[in-house]
Structures are given as structure tokens and as C-alpha cells.
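Q: Here's a chain of 244 amino acids. Please give me its 3D structure as C-alpha cells.
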Amino acid sequence: MTHARTLVLWIALLALAPVSAEAARGRHCKRLCKRFITACVQTNDCAALPTGRARRSCKRSCKHQLLHSCKQGSNACSTTTTTTLTPGPTTTTLPESCPGFTLTCRAATDFSSSIIGLGNRACVEGQGELPNDTTNVTVTINPLDPGQFSMFVSVLGSGNLDYDTSCSGPATPSNGSLTVEQTGSVSGTAGCCATGQSEELSHCRVTIDRVCDQTGEIVGDFEIDAQCDGVPTCSRQIRFLTTQ
């Protein structure tokens, strides 16, 4: 057999090789989650948001959270879970480094379905509050298996000050708040590595201090730790407050 024919044969064999389990899982999740994504978009009334950017962000959050959870092997697109949190006091006040991040409301107790919050208020620890007119905040709380949650928080539109994380793990309810922490392979952007360095998130923690029962406003913070060129060198802590 000539070299050319051998090469053609190898190409043909590669073309017929089975796709990876990860790729197959991704396609399966797209089919499985399609109606759940549609339901999430309708439930959160994404189409009624005032700007195109907000509508796209709302839809993207639904899609990202459900597909991510499905690919991790959860039953996010196949079953319904019910988790109840104990109501806390009616006022939540974040640390003095980010003044004004407060909510006075009755805390929500039903976290059995996805919750999405959108707003423009975020504060970076040590830097202060970001400009409201250029900041877009998206928060998604997504129930997975019983006692497990996936949190997605994104702070975008502030030039180089873009931060986001997708954090999954056991829920820790306490006085109406919910905390999820993940170590290891974490997706997101810490924005604290030097230009030209590779950034890999090694840890995330998202704390929801309050979800208002009637209005759906959300207040909380998230912390992300990153390795720059393989060396643990930086972290960010961002506080957020979504509006009605």
C-alpha cells in the first residue's frame, strides 16, 4: 500500500471514530434542556426587560446555567427539586467598604426553581463601587440535586473590570442566606492576572445574603481566587445588588 493510500485510510478511520463522551454529553444536554431554557426565559420574563443587552444577558444566563449543570452530570433538566431556606431578619447590610448595599424586605424561602437577578450595582473590595452607568450585573441561582446549587454571577461592562464565576456545590443555608463554595476546576474571570499571563480559577465562593420574596432583588458577594501562569497569586471579592 502506498504512503498516500495509507494516509487516506487513516483520515477515513479518524472521520469514523466515535465522538468524545464530552461532546456527546454536550449535544445530549442541548436537546434535554431546550424546553427548560425556554421555561426559564419565560419565567424570568426576559422579553420584558428594557434593553436588548439586558434581554440577551437574561437569556444567556438561563442557557449557561442549565447546560453547565447538565454537563456536570446533575439532573437539572430532568427533575424538580425543592429546597426551603429559613427566613432571616428583614435587613441585610454589607461591610462598610461597600456602603449602601442594603435590602429591607421579607426574605424568599422557596429556592426550588431558578432565580435570575439583573442590575447595575457592584463593588470591588479595596476599589469601591463601579460606575452604575457602565456596569451590568447578572445573578442566577439554580437548584441542582437536593442540597446542591449552582450560582452564576457576572459583572460586565466596566472596561477591564469584568468579573464572573460559575460556582457549584452543597448549599449552606443560614438565617435566610445561601452559600456555595467550590475548589478545583472553576470557570470564570478574576481579572487580576497581569497582561499576557494565563489565568485559571482555583476557588470560588458565592454568598446570597437575601432574595426579596416579592420583588426578587438579590444582595450578596462572591470571592474568586486565581492562579497566574500556574502560581496562586491573586483574588477578588465583589459585592452586588440587583434591582427589581
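Q: Can you summarize the key feature?
A: The longest helix spans residues 21-43.
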